[in-house]
Amino acid sequence: MPDTDVSNILWCLGFAVSAACLGLPDVGLISYGEMVDQGSLITQAVSIPVIGDGDNGYGNAMNVKRTERFARIILQDQA
Q1: 17 found inside a domain
Q2: Are the beta carbons of 18 and 25 closer than 8 angstroms?
Q3: Is position 12 within any domain?
């Protein structure tokens, strides 16, 4: 991804998914499965790299690995 023009990258953010799916702010109501499902739909619909919101990793390294459909993910330490 280093050669990618940053103007051609899409962010799949928890707030956007929560607002679109639930009509609510991102307060931890979107599940891991819902985020992965929406990420799959988004990455299939576009031809540009998608950066996914991995929140706090959803529990463990295996769940983080399952986000591999994104070009990159952002993780937060919420300890």
Answers
A1: yes
A2: yes
A3: yes
Number of domains present in the structure of the chain: 1
Tell me the residue length of the chain. Answer: 79
Residue, of 22 and 3, whose pLDDT is higher? 22
Take residue 44 and report the two structure tokens written for it.
Answer: 């299939």
How many angstroms separate the CA atoms of 65 and 79, rounded? 20
pLDDT of res. 71: 76
Q: Answer left, alpha or beta for residue 52, where phi above 0 means left and psi between -120 and 50 means alpha.
A: beta
Does the residue 1 lie in any domain? no
pTM of the prediction? 0.71
Q: Which of 4, 1, 38, 3 is nearest to 55 (CA)?
A: 38
The beta-strand segments (E) located in the chain are 10-12, 50-53, 72-74
pLDDT at 23 over 90: yes
